[in-house]
Design brief:
Shape: elongated
Order of helices and strands: HEEEEEEHHEE
Number of helices: 3
Radius of gyration: 18 Å
Largest sheet: 6 strands, antiparallel
Strand order of the largest sheet: 6-3-2-1-8-7
Length: 152
């Protein structure tokens, strides 16, 4: 764990923490769902939250909610994911800001744009594991690669 300076933490908290609460992001997975032999993108909405922890001296962003619909079937191996709605409340760490990154961020001319770029890049480089239902009502883990992400 990298220790952040108290001044950088306070500056970040004062300037940005409130605007980074309950931040909505829409993502499109690399997988597509088939509906009547037509491929449709699988989209999810994420809610993220960034918190400054003075005790641990760290700034972290978590995905706190995942909400979306699989509009058709998706084949994974010999199994077939069926259409379904997914709503998950979680606390999945997606971004941790180090001391050097924090200093860069608070000194940046457009800090929110830089933060946004970091967050979207972190999401696009992540593979999430979601529990989904397949055709025999069995639950399986589905690795979801993110094709792109953008703020709502």
């Amino acid at each position: 764990m990298v220790v952040l300076s108290e001044n950088s933490l306070l500056d970040f908290k004062t300037r940005f923490e409130k605007s980074l609460e309950n931040l909505p992001i829409s993502v499109i997975s690399r997988s597509t769902a088939l509906v009547n032999d037509i491929e449709y993108p699988v989209k999810f909405d994420f809610i993220t939250e960034t918190k400054v922890d003075h005790k641990k001296q760290v700034v972290t962003t978590h995905i706190i909610e995942i909400n979306g619909t699989i509009p058709g079937t998706i084949k994974i191996g010999s199994l077939q994911i069926i259409p379904q709605h997914i709503q998950i409340t979680c606390e999945y760490e997606i971004l941790s800001i180090t001391n050097n990154e924090l200093k860069t961020l608070v000194q940046e001319e457009k800090p929110m744009q830089l933060y946004s770029d970091w967050l979207l890049e972190a999401i696009e480089n992540e593979i999430l594991i979601l529990e989904v239902k397949v055709e025999n009502n069995q639950m399986v883990d589905w690795p979801v690669g993110i094709k792109n992400a953008y703020f709502l």
